[in-house]
Design brief:
By secondary structure, the protein is of the alpha/beta class. It has 19 helices and 32 strands. A six-stranded mixed β-sheet has the order 4-3-2-1-16-17. A six-stranded mixed β-sheet has the order 7-8-10-11-15-14, covered by helices on one side. Helix 13 packs across helix 19. The longest helix has 18 residues, at 354-371. It is elongated and about 85 Å long. Bound molecules: zinc ion. Zinc ion binds at residues 96, 127-129, 234, 269.
Length: 590
């Protein structure tokens, strides 16, 4: 749609909206229900526009999908349309603005907060990734943001480390939307302290949102006069509230309050399009209809991730009753392959807003320059060539496992004993000479998370017996450990046990005992069963740190500016020995 034409229509459209609240022949009013039309002045319409889990996506991807400039146009189009129909809009984010794209990460998400301010966000929930940097960085971001960061369940600690009654962020804010007063309360997942570096949240105390909301509702009842209460959350949506090992999410929050106290939850964190079919999720594709969740009289919405969609919720308010007349997830220049394998827009192309584009271009260019800045150097080749890394232990394989293990040890409890890395996740070598972040991203391009798990010796033995036999992309890079692997144990005896396959002497310098506990690091791709690894995500002691492998590797290189390849030679510091037919081989790959 032509934006200038829309602007020109505003004046006349407002007049027609005033007189034609019941008119069905006005296309713009299609989303207004008959009940609202019949109610006339007693019906107030307003629209919530929402996104979540931006994760550094201020710029369109290489295929021209999403990005804040196109998002701005889509949002402005909604604003124009709603205004012409006599409504008003509010723009909300479910948090996790930070972390995910190098160009943003290297600039502390400054471009993202500038972009959000230009788009006119009214409020955001504080996400767990907002704590990926020290609080000083988050404070800086809050200063740039021309909208509040809301979190009712984050309190300051005193100098003794005890929780105080003072919150770190604004708990809620009351917005007037088309004459209605709406209190919007922020909540952050209580998993946050588990998945960020403890230093970054050492001075903060997170409380249970289900308890905190009772407190905030009382505060609102005491101090404000509002027509309704919404929550803006970063807690995740899990169908029927089945949250597994994650902290309880939006459904549990909705169920925790008396019916009628909380009208809607605009969420984030689980990064799914919350489109329901029956009790479960619909098989949603871009452009499809989307029915948000509704639990205990509370609407629950989430718009997938990265600004791929803009959520549009058209509400009607009659006699104290809120209803949803229409809901859409609007794809932002998402593409699909046509029959000729060309990428084409799924829905009509959305023009990029020129002002936003111009403002953000500067940061995109700067990000590109920063990618090529040397962060470290190596005195020899770090071997990641596909044919080699999938067939034997290499210095790069050892470096990656050590980098992730050391980082987990430095930032979390407990100490990591060893690391596992599926060689299929190592995508390139690093040549002798300087190392830039761009090099890091060619080696680890998938933005998998670094994860870790603590297991008993018996469980570890089973795990290693499984992965040690893997070939191809599953061939494990393992470090440091003294372990013999009998590759043909199962061929010799189909009933071979884990102890027949692997004989572990020590892990990370600690003698191996079946009854002891050991912690190892891995990437969440293999933890989820990628490359046919055993799934460990359901293990009670599994933690996904939600930090990307590439950003951790970058940090490792920055801390080790002169890499000496000899220190990462596979024979250095213990590594598994593989045997077939009694003689030593490089791996179980044939
Ligand atoms: Zn999150």
């Amino acid at each position: 749609m032509n934006k200038i034409l829309l602007k020109g229509l505003v004046a006349t459209a407002v007049v027609s909206a005033l007189t034609a609240c019941g008119s069905d022949n006005n296309d713009d009013n299609k989303y207004i229900s008959q009940a609202c039309a019949d109610a006339g002045d007693a019906c107030t319409i307003f629209t919530v526009i929402h996104t979540n889990d931006n994760h550094g996506r201020f710029w369109a991807n290489k295929d021209g999908e999403y990005g804040m400039a196109a998002r701005k146009t889509a949002i402005d189009n909604i604003r124009d349309e709603v205004e012409r129909a006599g409504g008003d809009t509010i723009l909300l984010s479910g948090g996790d603005i930070n972390t995910g794209v190098p160009e943003s990460d290297m600039q502390d998400a400054v471009p993202d907060f500038i972009g959000m301010s230009m788009l006119g966000y009214d409020a955001m929930a504080v996400g767990n990734h907002e704590f990926d940097n020290p609080l000083t960085v988050l404070d800086m971001q809050a200063n740039i943001a021309q909208f509040p960061m809301l979190a009712a369940n984050i309190y300051k600690k005193d100098l003794n480390g005890d929780p105080t009654q003072e919150r770190y962020f604004e708990p809620y804010r009351v917005f007037e939307i088309n004459g209605l007063k709406v209190a919007i309360i922020g909540f952050t997942t209580v998993d946050t302290p588990k998945v960020v570096s403890p230093d970054n949240v050492a001075s903060l105390h997170f409380t249970d949102p289900q308890e905190e909301i009772q407190k905030v509702l009382t505060e609102i009842e005491t101090n404000e006069t509002v027509d309704m209460v919404f929550a803006l959350t970063h807690m995740g949506h899990y169908a029927n509230g089945e949250h597994g090992t994650e902290a309880p999410g939006d459904v549990k929050l909705a169920e925790s309050v008396a019916k009628g106290k909380l009208q809607a939850i605009i969420g984030g964190h689980s990064q799914n399009p919350v489109c329901m079919e029956g009790d479960g999720y619909a098989d949603f594709n871009p452009g499809d209809e989307c029915k948000p969740d509704e639990k205990n009289g509370t609407f629950i919405m989430q718009a997938h991730e990265w600004g791929k969609y803009v959520g549009r919720a058209d509400f009607e308010y009659i006699d104290g009753q809120l209803s949803l007349s229409s809901y859409k997830l609007i794809p932002i220049n998402l593409k699909e392959e046509n029959e000729n394998e060309e990428l084409v827009f799924i829905t009509e192309e959305i023009e990029q807003d020129q002002l936003v584009l111009d403002a953000l271009q500067h940061y995109q260019d700067l990000g590109q320059e920063l990618l090529d800045v040397a962060i470290s150097s190596t005195d020899g080749k770090l071997e990641g060539d596909r044919g080699v890394v999938r067939a034997e232990q290499t210095n790069l394989g050892q470096l990656l496992t050590r980098a992730y293990a050391d980082w987990v040890t430095a930032n979390f409890e407990p100490t990591v004993d060893f690391g596992v890395m599926n060689s299929g996740g190592i995508r390139d070598s690093i040549a002798e000479g300087t190392i830039s972040y761009r090099d890091v991203l060619t080696v680890q391009p998938f933005a998998n998370d670094v994860a870790f798990v603590t297991m008993t010796g018996t469980e570890v033995q089973d795990y290693l017996a499984n992965v040690a036999l893997k070939t191809g992309g599953g061939m494990p890079q393992l470090y440091p450990m003294e372990m013999n692997v009998t590759c043909d144990a199962i061929e010799i005896n189909p009933d071979a046990t884990s102890a027949d396959i692997v004989q572990i002497a020590s892990l990370g310098g600690r003698d191996f005992n079946l009854a002891d506990n050991y912690t190892f690091s891995l990437i969440n791709f293999s933890a989820k069963g990628g490359d046919d690894y055993p799934v460990v995500t359901a293990h009670a002691n599994y933690i996904d740190t939600q930090r990307s492998d590439a950003s951790v590797l970058r940090e490792y290189f920055e801390k080790n500016p002169n890499i000496k390849v000899a220190e990462y030679a596979p024979a250095n510091g213990g590594h598994p020995k593989f045997f077939r037919g009694g003689s030593e081989v490089k791996s179980c790959a044939k």
